[in-house]
Amino acid sequence: MAIELTLGTALAAIGAGVAVGFAALGSGIGQGIAAAGSVGAVAEDSSMFAQGIVFTAIPETQAIYGFLIAILLLVFSGIMGGHSLDTLTGLVAVGAGAAVGFACLGSGMGQGITSSASIGAVVENPSMFAQGIVFTAIPETQAIYGFLIAILLLVFGGII
Amino acid sequence: MVGDITSLIGTIGFSSPGAFIALLFLVLAVIGAIVVVVTIHPVLQYYPYMYPNARIRARIGKLFNEKQISEIVEADNLEEVKNYLRGVPEYAAHIEKYNIEKALNTQLAETYDLVARIAPDSIKDTFDILLSQWDVRNLKSIMIAKETGLTDEETMDLVVPFGELNESMDKIMDAKNIPEIINALEGTEYAKVLEDAMPEYQKTGMLLPLEAALDKNFLGKLVESVANPADDNASFLQSYIGTFVDSTNLKMILRAKADGLKFMDVEPYMISNGYQLRDWKLKELMESEDVEGVLSGLEGTDYSRVLAEVVPEYSSTGSVAPFEAALDKNIRKIAKSISQKNSLGVGPIIGFLSRKEIEIRNLKIIVRGKMEKGFSTSMIKEMLI
Question: Which of A11, A55, A116, A135 to mutate to test the interface with B (most CBs of B within 10 A)?
Fold first, then answer.
């Protein structure tokens, strides 16, 4: 089924790319950092595997936020069928993608560093697990800000 | 509204909204690329430290705490100390295999070996050189053993099975005297280092020039490896290694001046290109008449403050030992400070090595205390670091 793309829809597609691209970049780097720390911890103490998995999984959330916004943009911009967007609404879609993309880039990397430091703290002193989780969760807030603004842009920008 | 924007774009000079949007995206792409590079760069600087730091922190968690050290001190005899260490995986295998002193040295060497293997590439050279201290220690032990006529078995009790020379240790052990040791070292850097110091050894008949040449070569390489720090982590490493080398130089000068030695006597043993004590400063200190002259020559450096704290102790005893202890304490303080300031980079590695050195030194104090008759628990506790 061929779809006739308007400039607005094309802009929304760019927004979707920015959303998932930058969010996954931040999440990937963060998760890589966390995984490197976890592998080190498990190499010294194999009982750290479960904790390592938990801390490594935490920076995954940023990619999920970006992915969700990208899916919403694709569904409601006409790429997957339905009505196309005009140019101005397309620009709003780019804004939504950039909001979640860049927020998750910073948040993902920050969370990865904290995760890695936390797994180091837990392998040194196992009673640090709860505190480690709390500290690791804090950089999540920036991603949530970006995600919320992206949702608000989608809703009040006339996309959803 | 759309019409307003279109006319606004027209007044700026763009032929169509499409051209304007294309330029807008180009600008945004450039800004985005700059943001990504600027954001990622500092993160990537610490990325290589994540794996080694997790392993190091696991080891930090296994270091003896005060309560455990206290339990070991309270042991009734040496066998109880050994039994305690048999229950600790890091020490168990070595305790079964070697005498206690060698077992402790082997555990320390094993720690340096681990750090050298897992250290990030950018600072790996420095930790490889630090590991080579076991080559230097082994060579010194073998030279002393050959000079004093120890048997092969007794000599092997002094040799720690780590370092680059470990594989050729049998060949070195077969040597009967110093020239034969140098022959056995042919093809290694140590052959030339010892050959250069041979005339002095032949003149004095003492091993000191050979030992000093090995130390000078080791510390010289260490200083060179951190001479041009490429990033913050390398700078922290430079400050730690630099302080260690400065302290070594300073200890030699203080001891020489306490013994009334002159510039010419101490100058051959100095390590060039120190951290705070550059060559001109070292020359000034070596030319001092006495210990007081050295102390006044240090004014303006951090070492002045470090040593000032123990001047009363020196004045009452006349011994430079308090100065040496203060310099060692300063190195440990710097290691602790780096480990706190740079917790995502090289900090934990430096902090761990410093704490491991303390642990091994304390265990050796306990072991020697238990070997000596009439050495009470409280006396051992007083000597602990």
Answer: A116
B330's CB contacts (< 8 A; 6+ apart) are B243, B247, B302, B303, B306
Give CA–CA dist B298/B278, Å, rounded: 12
pLDDT tens-digit readout, B295-331: 999 998 999 999 999 999 999 998 999 999 999 999 9
Q: Do A44 and B55 touch (CB under 8 A)?
A: yes
User: Å from A14 to nearest chain B CA?
Assistant: 10
Q: Under an 8 A CB cutoff, do B58 and A40 touch?
A: yes
CATH superfamily of A7-156: lithium bound rotor ring of v- atpase (1.20.120.610)
- What ipTM describes this predicted complex? 0.86
Query: Who's near B88: CB < 8 A, 6+ residues apart?
Result: B62
**How many angstroms away from the CA of B36 is the closest CA of chain A?**
8
> How is chain A split into domains, by residue range?
7-156
Asked if the Cβ–Cβ distance from B36 to A125 is below 8 Å, we say no
Residue B345 touches chain A, beta carbons under 8 Å: no
